[in-house]
């Protein structure tokens, strides 16, 4: 789904901006993002004018996928990126950058899964079967976590390298026995008689969507960043308290129907400021990054293992 229904096709300029002591109206932020349902709080904040009320002028720059915003973030062309935690690990390990995670918008809570064809009702049934998965990326880590829980080894299956969309399509077409994919392919697979045998809901916070920043920017634009995150928190609260009004607003950004947004949100867990306090001030976010780093290092995807806590900056998250 992160490449199918998350993105806008052209460059979109969105000015927003709330009167708050956190920021002055002249302060600006350029945000790189992809059209992912987990950013519902961000989209609602923009549509409801929460950024404007916070006194921060926001320019949103759309990218095709969560990794595409990383190069312009590193080069300084944007101030913040809405991306995934694994991308932060990859770029920091490969290029020696020091990007920091300052907030989590959501975590996949079933929106990524292992689906199997009819008659294969558990991971154990996949022994000797062909499984489509994006090798050396975080959804392979999801598969490996599932195999581990089932008492299986990677060599027990026949892994075929495909991106999540291609894996979903191949599964629906009957070309593979199982696939590691995301929505809407999961729903299509189940509708066709397939079964979810393992999902991200069983490994909380493994696939985490985050806000990341260069340390230099976090210092020079600290007030604007704090205002931005406060507005996002307000947007997330609105999604929860006013779903009937929020669903059409998110649907507008995703270019889908409100009912589809409601269905998509079932597969993710949105995080507010209180949730981020537990994630970032506690050990969870750092442990997630540690798991990803160890996985990539074992696969030789990155040259060295990084320490998760070194990639977390909790200074913008209020303790509750």
From TrEMBL:
InterPro entries: ABC_SsuA_sub-bd, Solute-binding_3/MltF_N, SsuA/THI5
Annotated localization: Periplasm
Chief location bin: periplasm
Classification via Pfam families: NMT1
Protein keywords: Signal, Transport
Record-stated family: Belongs to the bacterial solute-binding protein SsuA/TauA family.
Name of this chain's protein: Aliphatic sulfonate ABC transporter substrate-binding protein
Organism this protein belongs to: Silvimonas amylolytica
